[in-house]
Amino acid sequence: MTATEPFRLTAAQAQAKFKDGSLTVEQYAKSLLHRVSTRDPTVHAWAYLDPDLVLEQARKLDRIPPEERGPLHGVAIGVKDVILTKDMPTQHNSPIYEDDAPRIDAASIMTLRANGALIFGKTTTTEFAATSVGPSHKGPKTANPHDPSRTPGGSSSGSGAAVGDMQVPIGLGTQTVGSTIRPGSFNGIYAMKPTWNSISREGQKLYSLIFDTLGLYARSVDDLQLLIDAFQLVDDGPEGHFAIKGAKFALVTLPTPEWPEPGPGTEAAMKKGAELLRAHGAMVEEITLPDEFRPMYKYHLQVLAGDGRVAFLPDYYQAKHHLHDSLIGHVENKDKHTRRDQLKAFDELAAMRPKMDVLADKYAAIIAPSALDEAPVGQGNTGSAAFCGPWTAMHMPVVNVPGFKGENGMPIGLSVVASRYRDQHLLRVCREVGKIFEAEGGWKRNL
Amino acid sequence: MTATEPFRLTAAQAQAKFKDGSLTVEQYAKSLLHRVSTRDPTVHAWAYLDPDLVLEQARKLDRIPPEERGPLHGVAIGVKDVILTKDMPTQHNSPIYEDDAPRIDAASIMTLRANGALIFGKTTTTEFAATSVGPSHKGPKTANPHDPSRTPGGSSSGSGAAVGDMQVPIGLGTQTVGSTIRPGSFNGIYAMKPTWNSISREGQKLYSLIFDTLGLYARSVDDLQLLIDAFQLVDDGPEGHFAIKGAKFALVTLPTPEWPEPGPGTEAAMKKGAELLRAHGAMVEEITLPDEFRPMYKYHLQVLAGDGRVAFLPDYYQAKHHLHDSLIGHVENKDKHTRRDQLKAFDELAAMRPKMDVLADKYAAIIAPSALDEAPVGQGNTGSAAFCGPWTAMHMPVVNVPGFKGENGMPIGLSVVASRYRDQHLLRVCREVGKIFEAEGGWKRNL
Fold this sequence. Notes:
Amidase signature (AS) enzymes; Asp-tRNA Asn/Glu-tRNA Gln amidotransferas-like protein subunit A (chains A, B); Amidase_dom (chains A, B); AS_sf (chains A, B)
């Protein structure tokens, strides 16, 4: 048996090899670049990737003396192309920004670089991370690595696909409704949307101030841990080890007709997830989100319309003819939202947040669907974000935990959710839940 | 009598001359530049100003055929140096960003340029618009144009001073507590903080997502009107002409000891403002903000601490030794705010907003103090923002209307406040209130 090819390593595993001297960042980067060159002609995950720049950065990292290396030393990160990077273009999958390359790093990129990360390239996105039309606007669209006839989801399409395809261990996404969690489920990877505003969103294309959140992709909880520690996400008070045995979970379904019905794959994953947790000694209470939360999705979309009206006005002035119809609709307020309705939606969502925290705090975590079903066929539409909306609107941290599969063998994950600012607790829970779902859920990465 | 020197014109007045052909944008820009060259060695309002770039842009605007000119054609705008401009550096008054010049426009700048504005230069700011230490970190500090021994206020120090000094008709500021309104009062100009999130904050240095707002400076309500129309601020439903006679105002004082006592100048301005409105036929009801709003200032500062912790983390990683102690304190959470307290503050402020709207909607507008008193002596400290905090925390639109004077003859303005998304209504009110305060308040610009 040969040694694992470096591209297959998680970031934490690669770091162990950097530490014991059995792998350099340059060798690692070369393995990732080779993976990209063989796989990406099918997947199309990258909006920009300069191998020379990657190798130059990698060599620079190798030259840092071991005692001066940062906590993210050599961790290779694909960056959604709505996040500014000072050494690469940021194009938003919009003709308005083709080849645009401002010399500035987003706040998240500054933090990652300061911790030693290797900023690898820019990954594809739907237009401004604000439509459900699969990227790219020119050339072939991004494909699901597990079945290229299917979508990888969106709007963080490229980051989800690249991490799922082992072209890079870590990806950055964004989420305004379900743009991080949905691709997580479709690509069979861990996806984390931390508590709103717990990581600076500066330098990340704006859609909604009150919803937009940086998203994190990885193939292990250890890798997510590396990231949230670098971003200094801290809960109140220390907590000990988390054990599944004796823990209480809520298995949450969302009330219809406000939300759609889950497909058979998601329904089976929810059932199996509950069975597995129970088999390992947990209590699982099945609940439907209480009635007071029913208007949440309507409010979410209403606030989003008002926010989109503000966010896309400059682009509209710049080049209306280059904007997607839905964005023009926001700016022109085609749905005739009133300010009164917009404020009511904003205020009612705000009033729901502490109530939802109280509900969540009764459990170790809430388990909920991540997506309607496995990734649909076709790359033009990235699928429904409806199931991800509640936790985005409520500002709660969510992790998509992979492990299940749909009727066509495609990956399906479940959302594990905690109350606001319990991101560290949530990862402790997901570490244990993930062990079980990955081992016994029925889906295996086969790439 | 000679014709008015062009630099003395408001933006709307200058536009009338562009239109009738009696003034070109280039001639106008030359007059402003001349004003800068004679006055700014005393005032120090500019962090960056390139006369050649200004004239080049002005000539370009003059070449646009009249029928293709934008609504802000030739309107010269000073931009606070925490707002990104693609053709000028953005330095945040921080050594970390000295000479930093990312090639990107903030959303607000994109909109202004698309409407024909002349982006004039970058105005001084306190460090990251987040301290009360008067700019600049190197060289002389920005002075109040009406008395250079005094502060122009902050954090939008340079924009307030430059507009007050007629070096430029329009300035952009930002406000997180009182960074736009306070300099408005100190410099004797109109200052507007629109409804939160009614103008895109993208590309403006982040301090707090939930409070930061772009601010607008001008020497007339007509000029503010030009700006908010370009930014497409729209109220619900059309409203007719506003008349002072028969209108009802609230003269609001804030409960102590949560807020400080106003100084004699502000107290006199409040008294005189009420008298003048009554003399013109308005009803003025004197109220103190109800008790349920008492914790507002404490909550505001608490949320700000949590937000600062996130916003300045990247700069902290980059160069902690270059950060002001208060910002290091945010990142290191020196005051030991818990997540629980932070969420309580965030949620309670959210719950107050609809209640404050109800209170405001009983009146044509709320009249409140803008600052403790006239601008204090010394340029090192920009003064207290306490009186501006409530309306920032409540997301309400506010205009500082000038017209009064303090014991030392310095200008004092009053805040005129409306409920959220009534920005157009607020300007209609301020147009009439401003006529009275400017004519009869007792202070005259003498520069």
